[in-house]
Design goal:
Layout (H helix, E strand, L loop, with lengths): L1 H6 L6 E3 L2 E17 L9 E17 L2 E14 L3 E3 L12 E10 L3 E8 L29 E9 L6 E9 L5 E11 L3 E10 L4 E13 L2 E12 L2 E12 L5 E11 L10 E12 L2 E10 L6 E11 L21
Length: 331
């Protein structure tokens, strides 16, 4: 697998700006010691080890483009097994389609359908697109992969894009979802935020994602959710400081807090992390994190890492810098 991925790390071929075909892939190995957080937070503590592999395909022909991401994940510790995902359908619950969509778009508009991810929130499914090896606590409760459609409109040159979509959320047992989001990438700040409504389970939430660039040596980021689940209010907030974001080594701190009196999100009352990312080459990434997780009793420490190798996608920073979240990804 590693030899295959290494062979894929040459730059993607593109005939011109309007037409390209890209095949790539990635793999990550994540060891940890402390509270077991994957595939879901649990009461278990100790050594954990899991891995993920992904195959990617992108194409564009004029105004038509498509994207396919297939994920496979498994655990070695504390248990050996394949990590399955909703919906409970053979094959796609094991080789999970993270994206499987086709879209048409012009300079100011886009319409897509299939399995898509709304552009709201800071973090992505995949380790190689993250700030740290563990997600912010809001991520697990945020909207998932949507089997449906979305339309978007960009206002002005390099202005914000507003999108509206709906369908079935595969990661919430195919619950119906209606969502709207706004994404914008600027020199001073970027925004990836929106709202999600699940009429069937009476969940209404705002999903927050924003970055600010007050100086070249620091990026400040805010991610989180706030809303109601039935009659239960909840809030989960993650605040990041990413230092030297254009360097090979990017020290990062994250502070988290939540208000969740009925325990609907499953998050801890608070958490604090110190770590960051190292990009030794354009196609490798190392994530490190020391984490202190708040509990009803004493805080519980943990250490986590992720070793990633991937083929940079079209348009990615060739130096392997962390450029923030992909507005086309889940979170």
């Amino acid at each position: 697998m590693l030899l295959l991925l290494a062979a894929l790390t040459s730059p993607a071929h593109a005939d011109d700006d309007d037409n390209f075909f890209f095949v790539g892939g990635a793999a990550a190995i994540r060891p940890g010691y402390g509270p077991v957080l994957y595939p879901a937070p649990s009461q278990a503590e100790g050594l954990s080890l899991w891995g993920e592999a992904e195959a990617d395909l992108r194409f564009q022909a004029g105004i038509v483009s498509g994207r396919l991401d297939l994920d496979f994940a498994g655990t070695v510790l504390p248990d050996v097994g394949i990590v399955k995902a909703l919906p409970d359908v053979p094959v796609i619950d094991t080789v999970r389609p993270e994206w499987a969509m086709i879209q048409a778009g012009g300079e100011t508009w886009v319409a897509r359908g299939g399995i898509v991810n709304a552009a709201m929130g800071l973090e992505d499914w995949d380790d190689w697109a993250m700030y740290m090896p563990t997600h912010g606590q809001y991520f697990a409760f945020s909207p998932g992969r949507m089997a449906g459609s979305e339309v978007g409109w960009t206002f002005g040159d390099d202005g914000p894009t507003v999108s509206i979509g709906g369908g079935a959320d595969l990661d919430w047992d195919s619950e119906g979802i209606v969502e709207a989001n706004v994404s914008y990438e600027g020199d001073a700040a970027s925004v990836y935020s929106g709202v999600a409504v699940y009429p069937g389970i009476q969940r209404y939430a705002a999903v927050l994602g924003a970055e600010a660039y007050p100086a070249e040596f620091v990026t400040l980021a805010l991610g989180g959710m706030a809303g109601v689940d039935g009659a239960s209010p909840f809030t989960e907030v993650s605040l990041y400081g990413v230092f030297l974001p254009e360097a090979i080594v990017k020290p990062t701190v994250r502070l988290e807090a939540g208000f969740d009196p009925d325990g609907v999100t499953g998050g801890a009352p608070w958490a604090a992390s110190v770590g960051g990312a190292i990009n030794p080459t354009p196609y490798t990434k190392i994530l490190l994190e020391g984490k202190l997780l708040g509990t009803a009793g004493d805080p519980v420490p943990g250490v986590y890492a992720s070793l990633c190798i991937f083929r940079p996608e079209p348009g990615d920073d060739e130096e392997g810098d962390d450029a923030g979240p992909d507005p086309d990804d889940k979170d």
